[in-house]
């Protein structure tokens, strides 16, 4: 695994990295605390038609999850999922969901073998990346997994015929972005959107997701947080639907549903990005407290 300085105006502590996923090289972005040991690691997985730069928004200072997390003492690793970034040439059709989940688990193992992980790992994911994160968490027996923070994901599509599009196509604009006012000026200028074509195999998994969800969710055994943007239109998120969604996580010790105001589906690129990221890191803090409290040595003898 190698890490090099990011190109051009790549800022702050963010640098490019490669991780070995059982023989498959995955690229990504890494930001680590500069002056203190890491408290924990946030591993971020982007949605369909995007890449790891989704978590390093540049349109305004303060919106990047990578720099925010490292400034608060966390390591943040944003991976290019299989079929994106450096792995796109080897996987021109991408990988199916469960294969991606296996690749992510292998990448986490490689990363943890070479980097300090502090108290453990939070998997934070968006949209299709949330499906992959669920698949990875469902079969991850490693006690280092602290929690699962998911956004832009549900279990019932708003439309009966989901049509996953490249995030830059006009046909998918409303679902992917919502009102333009939710994003800083310059977001949609050339090079402003961290977009890549969605691999064919990834698109093929969309229709089967509701059934796949009901297989994966009951096997997750860590705290779960789900965030729905105010202008989320890919997924149903009315009270009755959310009851079914949260109820599926029967083995999770805690399931939290949050609403993010003034945000569209791709909230990490909008004005609300910092608010959303701070809430995610607050959830990580709660996971750390729960882990500490549940350590046998933490209970005093009265």
Task: Walk me through this protein's architecture.
This protein is of the alpha/beta class and 302 residues long. The protein has helices spanning 65-71, 97-114, 128-138, 173-177, 200-204, 209-216, 239-247, 273-293; strands spanning 3-5, 15-21, 24-31, 41-45, 75-79, 121-126, 145-151, 224-229, 255-260. It has a nine-stranded mixed beta sheet with strand order 1-2-3-5-4-6-7-8-9, sandwiched between helices. The longest helix is centred in the C-terminal third of the chain and has 21 residues, at 273-293.
Strand and helix map with partners:
Layout: E1 3-5, E2 15-21, E3 24-31, E4 41-45, H1 65-71, E5 75-79, H2 97-114, E6 121-126, H3 128-138, E7 145-151, H4 173-177, H5 200-204, H6 209-216, E8 224-229, H7 239-247, E9 255-260, H8 273-293
Parallel strand pairs: 4-5, 4-6, 6-7, 7-8, 8-9
Antiparallel strand pairs: 1-2, 2-3, 3-5
Helix pairs in contact: 2-3
Keywords for this structure?
disordered N terminus; globular; 9-stranded mixed β-sheet; single chain; alpha/beta; 302 residues; disordered C terminus; 18% strand; 8 helices; Rossmann fold; 9 strands
Task: Describe the structure concisely for a colleague.
This protein is an alpha/beta fold and 302 residues long. It is 28% helix and 18% strand.
Care to count the β-strands?
Answer: 9
What structural category do the secondary elements indicate?
alpha/beta
Shape summary: globular
**Topology as a string of helices (H) and strands (E):** EEEEHEHEHEHHHEHEH
Count of helical stretches: 8
